[in-house]
Amino acid sequence: MNLIQKPTLTGQRFKTRKRDEKERFDPTQFQESIVQGLNQTGTDLEAVAKFLDASGAKLDYRRYAETLFDILVAGGMLAPGGTLSDDMTRTEYCLFTAQEDLETMQAYAQVFNKLIRRYKYLEKGFEEEIKKLLLFLKGFTESERNKLAMLTGILLANGSISASILNSLFNENLVKEGVSAAFAVKLFKSWINEKDINSVAGSLRKVGMDNRLMELFPANKRSCEHFSKYFTDAGLKELSDFARNQQSIGARKELQKELQEQMSRGDPLKEVREEMKKANLSEQAMISIIWTSVMSSVEWNKKEELVTEQAIKHLKQYSPLLKAFTSQGLSELSLLLKIQEYCYDNIHFMKAFQKIVVLLYKADVLSEEAILKWYTEAHLAKGKSVFLEQMKKFVEWLKNAEEGKDGEITCTSWVLCVLRSCVQS
């Protein structure tokens, strides 16, 4: 009997290439190489920049980016909380051991800028490092915090990092102990020193931080008055003014939204003047808010010939409210400019401008003096020729109003004439 040999499964073992094996994360050798180089270059930051540029070709910056930045800032790898790891080699040549002055921090900022320009992939890692360092602030000495604040301000001014890193300063523990506010003083001073308050404002707005600066303080001190006093006393009045202005803008938006919703629902408007006082708004600011709310609370007809009639009817309803907030000449001019701007920006209203002005004149919202001042010198450039032409006959009549009292036409009859024509058109 012949025995048939059963087939056997056999496999071939492939030798794994070393480069395919996952390398173990071990920053020890990397740290030793960086520390050794920094010890050799010492305080010569030009030499430091050259060393870092050359080392990127030999060392794995991508893998050990956090280690690299820890060493450049603190002299060695940082443990959670901001303390230096005991079992690691460290250097005395780093940001934290440098002189505490703006010139030195500017030189360090150049080192980081050169490094990141040379190795673009480090950009994100560097931003993450700054966020981490801000969370570790309590673990650093006051002098170390000051140096980091100055460096961060310079980097923000140069656009090397995004203002979104400031999120870390809103950490509850840092805020509660006053660390965030003190750090912010040094940071904003160096930022404004490099650029100006407009640069600060633009960067903060870009990342939605312009209305969050109050969060640098605990909830019980989160007021415009406290913020203003703290930063003004620290020599940052321009930052105080910016924050106050932002709060005012925020209050206006909230008030406008609330008024618009009430009007859309047809609710009776209550305590508008109280809201104005609460938001610390001038009458000129308030009349602009009311006008915008009135005009935004209705769905306008798309046909030019019908929208004027709709506008007259709508504005007639709200003329007592407009009148209540035009007790000053400046308020009347503010309203006229808002009407001009609105009619220019909304093309269907281009022909309605004169009829709106006449209506508000008849309702004692706008005075003869305000209309004449607007016509002769205070108008905007927007649609100037169109609107001045529309107003020409009415303005001529206003100028001759005194004589007209004894003539064939009176103020009231003329206005009624105009109103009748605008309703019929």
TrEMBL record:
Single Gene Ontology BP annotation: regulation of translational initiation
InterPro entries per UniProt: ARM-type_fold, eIF5-mimic_regulator, HEAT_5MP1_2, W2_5MP1/2, W2_domain
Gene3D superfamilies (alphabetical): 1.25.40.180
Alphabetical UniProt keywords: Activator, Transcription, Transcription regulation, Translation regulation
Keyword Ligase: no
PROSITE patterns attached to this UniProt entry: W2
Domain W2 intervals: 245-408
Keyword Signal found: no
Annotated GO CC locations: cytoplasm; membrane
Entry-linked Pfam families: HEAT_5MP1_2, W2
Region (Disordered) residue spans: 1-24
UniProt superkingdom: Eukaryota
Biased composition (Polar residues): 1-13
Family per similarity comment: Belongs to the BZW family.
The protein, known as: W2 domain-containing protein
Species for this entry: Astatotilapia calliptera (Eastern happy)
Organism placement in taxonomy: Eukaryota, Metazoa, Chordata, Craniata, Vertebrata
